[in-house]
Amino acid sequence: MKPSLETIAEKAGVSIATVSRTLNDRAGVNADTRERVLAIARDMGYMPNAAAKGLATSRTYTLGLIMYDRAPQQPICNFPDETMLGVDHEAREHGYHIITTFVNQGMMQDALRVPIIGQQRTDGVILVGPELKASFIIQLHSSNIPFVLVDNLLNETRSDAILCDNVTGSYSITRHLVAAHDLRNLAFFSGPADWLSSRERCQGYENALGEVGAEPRVVYMEDTTMQTGYRAMYEALERFPDLEGVIAVNDATAFGAIRACKEQGLRVPDDVAVVGFDNVGWAPLHDPPLTTVRISWREIGIQAARRLIDRIDRDAPASFQLRIGTELMVRQSCGCSPDDQDEAGSMPAASR
Question: Fewer Cβ close by (within 10 Å): the C or N end of the chain?
Fold first, then answer.
């Protein structure tokens, strides 16, 4: 049984609120206090450490890959397949195998409910996606189970993470709409504000608009699916009658936005430009072909596995972060012609 927050607080000599903030990776706790609370939580079995003991005493030569269970909502996404391929390739190069599992909201309440953790079946885990809660990740941190984050990052607690360059990618595609198509009245469709990718891609969009003195217009969505993109487009058209273009946080929401435009009799890109982020397989086949940002998910998977194996083999301390570059994929949904695409093709995301 986990110790209560009260027990940890008493042992650490801090308030219950301080313990709660620490175990949920929230701001307002200084670094020394945070490390002390995490150490005490670990010693007291905040994450019941049977799994950790198993990991410490025997090697399975197996890596766990944990993702959030959202497949029915998001059927068009590259990152699960491409990331798994990258992880599997690098793992086999080092004599490891991978086990993939998906978690839901209930399982994130207690890390031991995830079988590959509770049954001591891996030497370490890769946690993929912004939906994985900080409190769930902190449980693994408190148990000394080696882990690496992908498309996620703890704000206050040191951890390893492999990420794409969200800010530069979003800046580049927004800058393209501004510079190549002279658009200023642009909205950004953001996922939940506490998701790293949403925050960083919004930042890149705001940076590009700030250079030309344009006002940011952000529409927040509770998720990043075709359905939420569809609804966000209706909201944006109502809020911003002079809307000229949309930068969607991912391709799925861009597809939903284009569908809503068509229902409203708006032509993409003649009336409203719509661009995405991810470069899913359907993007070049869509009507119109989607201008977007390509993420090297396979390379991200390779780097995540490489780092995790290094953690396991050398007991390296956590705090390593690596950002993989992105590419701007110019197609017709932004207003470029097929000839423009032939000339531009794919371009590295611009540096700021």
Answer: N
